[in-house]
Amino acid sequence: MKKIIKELIKTGKKIVHEKLVIDTGGNISGRCGNTIFIKSKGSPLNSSSIKSYALIDLVTRKVIKGTPSSEKYIHLACYKKRDDIDTVLHLHPVFSTAVANSSIKIEAVSYELCATLGSKLIKAKYKPSGSKALANEVAKLVTKHNTILLPNHGIIVVGKGLAKTLKRAVAVERACKTLIFSKILGVSKFLPKKEALRIIKLYKNA
Ligand SMILES: [Zn+2]
Fold it and tell me: Which of 121, 162, 184, 197 is positioned for an S-S bond with 11, CB 3.0–4.6 A?
């Protein structure tokens, strides 16, 4: 089995373990040269089967093998906009989705978030799942952001390396949980912008 598929299977299992998706929800991909390895349509992320991953040519956008996830347009749009990334995760975490649905201001809640995110958290406009409109909305935001919150849906997290990008997704979910609990407790202390930017810069190439 190709190394990248082995790593995707391992990452998928960790995502289910972290409860960032349920059932067949969510999809992940990795880029190897001009080939995208992406979760197959209808496969659960904790599957160990090689058939759980389909292949797409990034240049021609043609499917090389299998049936890719219906969110393939998002994955292709992210790779097209960002030469510096080789991983795209689309997940349905509870707290991140709750923050995406709310009108609360997304602030720098923790050192952990700034260190792992490498950018600000941003919210997309709602577009139907699987649509090209959603991919276009993500494409607009992914040029400057590594994580995009999708209202009534989930999150998109991009990065270099599956392990590092998953760490980023887990940190975002934990930060959104912290943000919600901070608001419930009436706490309004967040990291000042200058300090948040200092931490982002410090960990940029870590
Ligand atoms: Zn989804």
Answer: 162
